[in-house]
Amino acid sequence: MKRALIIIDIQNDFCPGGPMAVREGDLTVAVANRYAREFRARGECVVALQDWHPNNHGSFASVSGEPVYTLGELNGLAQIWWPDHGIQGSVGADFHPDLDRTLIDAVFHKGEDVDVDSYSAFFDNGHRRKTELDRWLRERDISHLVVLGLATDYCVKYSVLDALELGYQVEVVEEGCRGVNLNPEDSAIAIEQMRNQGAIII
Ligand code: VGL
Ligand code: ZN
């Protein structure tokens, strides 16, 4: 059984001070670094994801003209209109400065297609297109994922649910995750959904 650590979207825009700040988002950094050091010390892989949108991404409230954090529809899929975030090449899209990049073996991007949002590390929200992550993991016979990062109720949740569906064993490091919580219960509900689908919450 080979394992990989999957670090989800620990980017400046999702940390305090950013346009889409997740409360205590920056507290995930030390946890990520600690796990990453342990994985590397055992010769296991560390992978990081980045939300990586073009500046006119269809999920942006600035593009739809709707108020931020309200619900609408983008190409037939339910869509929350987000503040501009994760713009390719911007400082905001960069990893948090304290995240130790020297421990990361591979970086994967998601959300590059303007027409569809992409919370999961594996698929867009319409499950039409797949990132390279699944193939990269399979090529290395990695069957067990340890997941942490931002945000519990969006990118962490959808990445974990897709990973379970793809047949991975998944552990979620709860202390290494924080949520957007548009409704205060959202992260707790997300943790329960992940657990119900077979994830082990540690
Ligand atoms: C995320 C909403 C939109 C996340 C990214 O990283 O959880 N959520 N884009
Ligand atoms: Zn996004």
UniProtKB/TrEMBL annotation:
<dbReference type="Pfam" id="PF00857">
    <property type="entry name" value="Isochorismatase"/>
</dbReference>
<comment type="similarity">
    <text>Belongs to the isochorismatase family.</text>
</comment>
<keyword id="KW-0479">Metal-binding</keyword>
<dbReference type="GO" id="GO:0019363">
    <property type="term" value="P:pyridine nucleotide biosynthetic process"/>
</dbReference>
<protein>
    <recommendedName>
        <fullName>Nicotinamidase</fullName>
        <ecNumber>3.5.1.19</ecNumber>
    </recommendedName>
</protein>
<dbReference type="InterPro" id="IPR036380">
    <property type="entry name" value="Isochorismatase-like_sf"/>
</dbReference>
<dbReference type="GO" id="GO:0008936">
    <property type="term" value="F:nicotinamidase activity"/>
</dbReference>
<dbReference type="InterPro" id="IPR052347">
    <property type="entry name" value="Isochorismatase_Nicotinamidase"/>
</dbReference>
<dbReference type="GO" id="GO:0046872">
    <property type="term" value="F:metal ion binding"/>
</dbReference>
<comment type="pathway">
    <text>Cofactor biosynthesis; nicotinate biosynthesis; nicotinate from nicotinamide: step 1/1.</text>
</comment>
<keyword id="KW-0662">Pyridine nucleotide biosynthesis</keyword>
<keyword id="KW-0378">Hydrolase</keyword>
<feature type="domain" description="Isochorismatase-like">
    <location>
        <begin position="4"/>
        <end position="202"/>
    </location>
</feature>
<dbReference type="InterPro" id="IPR000868">
    <property type="entry name" value="Isochorismatase-like_dom"/>
</dbReference>
